[in-house]
Write a structure and sequence with these properties.
Elements lengths: L12 H19 L6 H25 L23 H24 L6 H20 L3 H19 L6 H32 L4 H9 L14 H18 L8 H8 L2 H26 L4 H6 L4 H19 L5 H21 L7 H31 L16 H15 L5 H16 L5 H28 L14 H16 L4 H16 L1
Helix pairs in contact: 1-2, 1-4, 2-3, 2-4, 3-4, 3-10, 3-14, 3-18, 3-19, 4-5, 4-10, 5-6, 5-10, 6-8, 6-9, 8-10, 9-10, 9-13, 10-13, 10-14, 12-13, 12-17, 13-14, 13-16, 13-17, 14-15, 14-16, 14-18, 14-19, 15-17, 15-18, 16-17
Membrane topology: Multi-pass membrane protein
Pfam families: Proton_antipo_M
GO molecular function: NADH dehydrogenase (ubiquinone) activity
Length: 517
């Protein structure tokens, strides 16, 4: 029995803190639209992100969302349309961590840019939507949270208004995002038409035959309609996670956007897309029952998506000359790795493979964010975009370049860095799932092959930075405090997370158990 019980609305505390922070930044910009007080703006955004992180960690440690002896869900009850369980809190932590790193790095990156108040407001507002996505438990709240995350992201990609590449990337991102949203909404309407419900638990009851569909018809008669709706939902989620076939916006958006925003979209936004994907397909469409209704299990679609996404992403990354585009295609490959979490589920469970995907997304939040922030540092220095432009940077900036080497080797899955353990658990989880589906043996083999391929293009960048000779005309490189701090923190976490991987494993498995168990 808890000593005190918080009001129900505080269940969404991490997301609400981000929302209040965004409103405070909007209010400051309205009162003083010409202000250039970067310390206040960045400080407010960092304080809001870290407070959200602290509350999410507190809720996790306190056991919020875990079943209790009396059948409750911890100290704080879920609110209507949202559920605050260990899965939601796990991804709220990822969003808050990445947001804090992005804001700290942006302090130096934006030193000469206009629209600083708008920039920080939009970042925190997008983070609010991503945090709400983690807790959304209805197709309606999922849609609203997704749009809250997406609309500020479109503006952030195009915020460099004097940069043609940024504006063009923002326009492409918006147009493709609008198309995917239309597909997603149509998918929701088809699922609603087949089941008569929008809440995930209610949809699962209809699919399982525990209740009748909203209009009283037999759900088996609506299998085709429901199957088409599920495929359209997968399409909408594929856009948000930069998975094939809705991946082609990512290289354009990441290359044209400010580098911190590229890090934000490829880490926090991807994590938010995956948490909704995990929740919808494990809660609303239970395996076994859904196969009897639509004629096939949706894991088949995710097996194909995982193989194609990781293969296309890695092979495309290996052919790039631009560092930023290489990292963009690399992020597509990592989306394929995370999709293994759904591909390996079975009617009897799959907690390990989904937990492994969550572990990878947490580690990925540090190593991928750090890699893009190093690109932001290079842009701050005025270094070009190609691998050759990065030649010899280690001679002038050894600390930052050592951090970049950590990010590259961790992304490739080389020990003793965090990315090794997360990929190891993905491999083990895929092999465990192969006892129920032999196709998972192919997924495991493709995972190993793609990891080996990724080492080629990651080490290519390390070679350019550390081995190649620098150009004679390069000026002295500055050491901006904010960018350096964010990069070093990300590098340290990428290293220390391996010996301390036990708590990460426990948290990820608890989060997976919240929806799989």
């Amino acid at each position: 029995m808890a000593i005190y019980e918080l009001p129900e609305w505080t269940a969404l505390g991490p997301a609400l803190i981000l929302a209040v922070t965004a409103l405070a930044l909007f209010a400051f910009d309205s009162i003083s639209p010409r202000s250039t007080n970067r310390q206040l703006l960045a400080g407010t955004a960092v304080a809001g992100s870290l407070t959200s992180l602290g509350v999410a960690v507190w809720f996790t440690v306190a056991g919020v969302g875990t079943p209790t002896a009396d059948g409750g869900n911890g100290v704080i009850d879920p609110t209507h349309g949202f559920v605050v369980d260990q899965l939601a809190l796990y991804f709220m932590i990822i969003v808050a961590v990445v947001t804090a790193l992005i804001v700290v790095a942006s302090y130096d990156y934006l030193v000469d840019h206009a629209y600083q108040a708008e920039y920080y407001s939009l970042v925190i507002l997008a983070a609010t939507g991503m945090s709400l996505m983690a807790a959304a438990d209805s197709l309606v709240t999922i849609l609203i949270a997704l749009e809250l995350a997406s609309l500020p992201s479109y503006a952030l990609v195009a915020i460099l208004k004097d940069n043609r590449g940024s504006v063009e990337a923002g326009l492409k991102y918006f147009l493709i995002g609008s198309l995917s949203s239309a597909i997603f909404i149509y998918g929701i309407s088809l699922v609603y038409g087949a089941t008569g419900h929008l809440e995930l638990a209610a949809i699962a009851e209809v699919v399982s035959g525990e209740t009748e569909a909203g209009s009283g018809h037999d759900i088996t008669e609506m299998g085709g309609l429901l199957g088409l709706g599920i495929l359209m939902l997968i399409g909408g989620f594929a856009f948000k996670t930069a998975s094939v076939p809705f991946h082609f916006w990512a290289p354009e958006a990441y290359e044209g956007a400010p580098a911190p925003i590229s890090a934000f979209l490829s880490s926090a936004s991807k994590a938010a897309g995956f948490v909704v994907l995990f929740r919808v397909f494990t809660e609303a469409f239970p395996l076994g029952e859904i196969g009897a209704v639509i004629g096939f299990d949706w894991t088949v679609a995710f097996i194909v998506l995982a193989i194609v996404t990781m293969t296309l992403g890695n092979f495309a990354a290996a052919t790039q000359d631009s560092v930023k585009r290489m990292l963009a295609y690399s992020s597509i490959g990592h989306a394929g790795y995370a999709l293994i979490g759904l591909a390996g589920l079975t009617a009897d469970g799959g907690e390990l493979v989904m937990g492994a995907a969550m572990m990878h997304l947490l580690v990925y939040g540090f190593m991928n964010t750090g890699a893009f922030l190093f690109v932001a540092l290079a842009e701050h220095w005025g270094v070009g975009r190609t691998f050759e432009d990065y030649n010899g940077l280690a001679a002038q900036a050894p600390v930052a370049c050592a951090a970049m080497a950590v990010f590259m080797f961790s992304l490739a899955g080389i020990p003793p860095f965090g990315g090794f353990f997360s990929k190891y658990f993905l491999f083990v989880g895929a092999l465990e799932a192969a006892t129920a589906s032999t196709a998972m043996l192919v997924v495991a083999a493709v995972l190993v092959i793609n990891s080996a391929l990724s080492l080629y293009y990651y080490s290519r960048l390390v070679k350019a930075i550390w081995i190649e000779d620098p150009p004679a005309t390069r000026d002295r490189l500055a050491q901006p405090t904010g960018l350096y701090a964010a990069i070093i923190v990300a590098a340290v976490m990428t290293i220390v997370i391996l010996p301390g991987f036990g708590p990460v494993v426990d948290a990820a498995l608890d989060a997976a158990g919240a929806v799989v168990g």
